[in-house]
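Why does this matter for the project? Reviewers at the last site visit asked to see concrete outputs rather than summary tables. In response, this paragraph embeds two records directly. Each consists of the residue sequence and, immediately after it, the corresponding structure tokens. Nothing has been edited or filtered.
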Amino acid sequence: MYASDISRELWELGFELFNDRDRMMAKFIQASILDAGSDLGQLKGMIDVIIANQFIHLFDWEGQVSVIKRIVELSKPGTVLIGYQGAKVPPEELQRPWGNMYFHDQETFRKLWQRVELETRSKWDLDVKLVDLSEWGMEREDLDWMPEGRKGINFVVTRQS
């Protein structure tokens, strides 16, 4: 099992929070998924399951294309990508202090994958569900500050070829 993040500090914080340093057997790779020269390259074509929770939506549209292309590089036929992320109806790119983030609905999420399939010559089966954020356990006060139309996307994406 491998774990990766751009920041080792978050990994260390997880050990403190869960008190599992002696039991967590995953190998941590500090890297940006967008850095083609990072140590993630050693996993090219080897990953069976990828978990991407609250991650892909952190990027603008083109950044998401790059992230998913990198996921394709790490995957092989049969790889399953599971996750969830913020969504918006209608879809919208929002400016944040660190850059723009694109929030999909089901249709644009599928269009994103269609583009990646064409550009990588891979084929993926998408199971995508748009959900109300209350399904993730968010309370009304958690949602009040969010923009109108804020939703979530749950996804299971399986590589066919």
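We now turn to the second protein, recorded in exactly the same manner.
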Amino acid sequence: MTMFNIRGMHRILASSIGVTCAAALAVPLAPATAIASASPTRTPHTTQTQSQTPTTETTPEGHTESLPLKPLTSTRATATPTAPEQGLRAQDVRRFSLVGVIWDDPRTELHGTVQVRTRSTETGTWSDWQDVATHNADHAPDPDASERVSGRVHGATAPLWVGESDGVEVRVRAEQPETTDTPTLPTGLRLELVDPGEEPARTAPAARTAPVRRADTPQDAAPASVATTLSAETAEASAVNTELAPLGALEIPALSDEETRRELLTLGQAELLADLTEEQQAKPYIGPRPGIVTRRGWGANESWRERKFVYTSKVKAAFVHHTASGNGYTCSQAPSVIRGIYRYHVMSMGWRDIGYNFVVDKCGTIYEGRAGGVAKPVLGAHTLGFNSNSMGIALLGSYGSKKPSKASVNAVAGLTAWKLGLFGANPRGKTYLKSGGGNLYAKGRKVRLNVISGHRDGFATECPGLQMYRKLGTTRKAAAELQGR
């Protein structure tokens, strides 16, 4: 493996080409937004009726068009809010790339099928009918979490990436229950058409405040303390994005060398210096830190999410997921897909941020998910009942029948070897987590789980897809070897 000398990196960054490359993908650091308890500023989320004339206008920050579904039959008996067949006829809409269906009550499940077909802006042709995964309630905040009981949360299908489109048709059909009851659908069904927007222009951040660290029960705990505000100079230096090679391939000298410390700070690596110091003081079995594209690197608009960060006490386990958003994306489109999912989670589903802690695309690129710092125990919304003391890693795509790429499986192994190692967890081991409530384990029950588990181990779901689930044994073995076990 090629090793990069720190001084060599300094010379590269001194050139305009080096700075340009460095700004493309970021070494992990916490987002440069200050903590606040105020609600996030919402960007456009428009409601359109079928009689309105849509516009093809797109905006750099993206938008969400929300269309209420209607009964597809005309009889008075079926024209109810819970009609068993609802949808929209083919129509022109604003440009979008990702689609999902939401409803009023997040506690209500949609038992049935959701299908969409879309018209490509590139070819002008309509797609075949595509299935949208309906079981998405298991990717959620824990039942008692403040994020769950905020009053803004909706039930939702998984999002589906369809590529840039300007026409849509949808049909939702309830399945016949085992009883003699009439099949029904949840109330308030709406079609969400998401334009993920463009990657925002990069600007140097102002001085920022480190996040408030919270207790093991994040939603109820009061702030313990606020760390020192970084100076404007240090904050700007820390924002220099240095991804010339995966961080695991960089040769990091001993941090007792004061000259090395100054070198890292000059390179804009204040966050890296702090994290590396923490890692060296942690448990001995830590895999090499992989390259991670930060939120800034994939173009996260930080005004969409809530500005506060919430932490759990540690990371004892990793749950592996798939986004169930389809495999029809190119790796160059992955940042757009992630921005679409981010917007869907926040604007449509009502969460504080994207639910996953990390996302991995089919080329093996790792992306920072929920904000708060990649080396920190950020509380996610990925495994209903087991979000505390765990992290969620989602493969971008659907892996029920399709096998995940070797690169993506290797990326999950590398990420878990490093992140679990920071907290002394053995990827081949077992651990106990307390259930927050779900359809497999009652609230309060202590459950013995693999340190690297599939989503279905904590909740009755198909996630992370059968094909990815079969790879977890290989993942555990590879991660343990990377830790030197």
